[in-house]
Specification:
The protein has 13 helices and 13 strands. The longest helix has 19 residues, at 247-265. The chain folds into two domains: 14-244, Aspartate Aminotransferase, domain 2; 247-366, Aspartate Aminotransferase, domain 1 (Alpha-Beta Complex). By secondary structure, it is an alpha/beta fold. The radius of gyration is 21 Å and the shape is globular.
């Protein structure tokens, strides 16, 4: 087998794929001097709102989006917010910097928040639940909505990885008070730096965040609330507008790659795969990542690297509650075991069908299948 080089993600390709058009966008925006909160941002927000069925606001990053949402929604000191520990630390830090306490709970077999663990973690101080719609999949929101209604809790979604993902036809970020989207370069819709968006269903909270992202200033220049400096740069918005034109086709290609992985790897007993694109009519997954569980994870990762295949262990192999220096003391054995066995295979727009075959051949070879 001829050795290939398949990086986990090819960052230079983001620009190289269409550098003439992207250079033209940079020149056009720069010649207008349209750098902060201009028409490109307004247009992108309008398109994003229509696509998600919510009100969308561009902000500096997805972590800010979550913090702005919770602050505007009344989360603060003495409150507790339950989240799944199988997530990036940013989920918890957004909670922490509202003044609230982040409470980590277990992941389920789908790698998303476990509803039974939510119930066990509820106390008199619990104010909200924050499911992470991880890897481009939406959690079982029916159960989570039932819990929120039973206990009078708000729902904020960390939907940073889930633009376009749906549960029963409803978009990620649209189930509770609101959600967030990340435009980090490696995301399905990525810009050339940090970027994010707030998705919000509540008009009053939306209007408050619109002020808060820009120092609390209204269109008349009056400052009516304490705010932040958290605006999506207009140049980044113009780039995102351009990439957004092909977003549905990009999602379909990612689903096709996931389907190929499933066809090739589903027979391996040593490998547990994410649900296939055709496994459930209730879920529409966009496959931000293709995260598998495997025996001998570290050895497999090394073997694939020796054969030119880049892989990634999310968040350095630790769930949030395992960062003990942050003050967490919880024991979450299922999530801890998940972090020791999970590995992400390359899934992006540079991956070809032949690449998938090459990767799957080497996974099979490693297990002598």
């Amino acid at each position: 087998m001829t050795k290939k080089n398949i990086p986990f993600f090819n960052y230079p390709w983001l620009f190289q794929q269409d550098k003439d058009q992207l250079t033209k966008i940079f020149q056009e925006v720069s010649n207008r001097g349209a750098f902060i909160m201009q028409d490109d941002l307004s247009e992108f927000e309008s398109r994003l709102s229509k696509y998600t069925g919510t009100r969308a606001l561009g902000v500096a990053n997805a972590t800010d989006a979550l913090q702005l949402l919770m602050k505007a929604g009344g989360i603060g000191a003495d409150d507790e917010v339950i989240f799944c520990s199988h997530t990036m630390v940013a989920t918890a830090s957004a909670i922490k910097f509202t003044g609230a306490t982040p409470v980590p709970v277990e992941a389920g077999t789908d790698h998303l928040i476990d509803p039974d663990s939510i119930k066990k973690a509820i106390t008199s101080k619990t104010k909200a639940i924050m499911p992470t719609q991880l890897n481009g999949r939406v959690a079982d929101m029916d159960q989570i909505l039932e819990i929120s209604q039973e206990y009078g809790l708000q729902i904020y979604e960390d939907s940073a990885q889930a633009l376009g993902a749906k549960y029963k036809g409803k978009a990620a970020g649209s189930f509770g008070v609101g959600g967030c989207i990340s435009f980090y370069p490696a995301k399905i819709l990525g810009c050339f730096g940090d970027g994010g968006a707030v998705l919000c269903n509540d008009e009053e909270i939306y209007q408050k965040i619109k002020l808060m992202r820009d120092h609390g200033r209204g269109d008349d220049g009056n400052v009516s609330v304490w705010g932040y400096n958290s605006r999506l740069d207009n140049l980044q918005a113009a780039i995102l507008n351009y990439f957004f034109n092909d977003y549905e086709q990009i999602v379909e290609r990612r689903r096709a790659i996931a389907r190929l992985y499933h066809e090739r790897l589903s027979g391996l007993s040593m490998v547990t795969l994410p649900p296939s694109p055709d496994s459930s009519s209730e879920h529409f997954d966009v496959y931000q990542n293709y995260e598998i569980e495997v025996d001998k994870r570290d050895e497999l990762k090394k073997y694939l690297a020796e054969n030119g295949i880049g892989t990634l262990i999310q968040w350095g192999g630790k769930a949030v509650h395992e960062f003990r220096d942050l003050g967490f003391t919880q024991s979450l054995p299922y999530t801890e075991n998940l972090m020791r066995s999970s590995l992400m295979l390359p899934l992006n727009m540079t991956v070809t069908d032949d690449d998938v075959d090459y990767i799957c051949d080497h996974v099979s070879n490693f297990y002598h299948v």
